[in-house]
Write a structure and sequence with these properties.
mainly alpha, flat, transport, 89 residues, MrpF/PhaF-like
């Protein structure tokens, strides 16, 4: 029972911090700041999905989290390559 309360607290903390990081995604000031913010939010969402899977016992959600993490990694690489060609910020 105490473990479930800890998972719920971690869930709310991750959601709160993801909302805080969303300010950086929306306001910038530069494109690299926005990319890092977006990658941070996506990573937090992956952990949230894993927490929900553990709380509910629906472990097929872990597969979804892994796919989202792979898409996040590839997307980050593509954006980094774009920024390199565009000349930075």
């Amino acid at each position: 029972m105490a473990q479930e309360g800890l998972l719920v607290s971690a869930f709310y903390l991750l959601v709160f911090t993801a909302l805080l990081v969303s300010y950086r995604v929306l306001r910038g000031p530069t494109l690299p700041d926005r990319v890092v913010g977006l990658n941070t939010i996506t990573t937090k969402v992956v952990v949230i999905i894993a927490l929900v899977a553990a709380m509910r016992g629906e472990y097929y959600l872990i597969d979804l989290a892994i796919v989202l993490l792979m898409v996040n990694s590839v997307g980050g690489l593509i954006l980094a390559k774009y920024m390199e060609r565009a000349g930075g910020a």
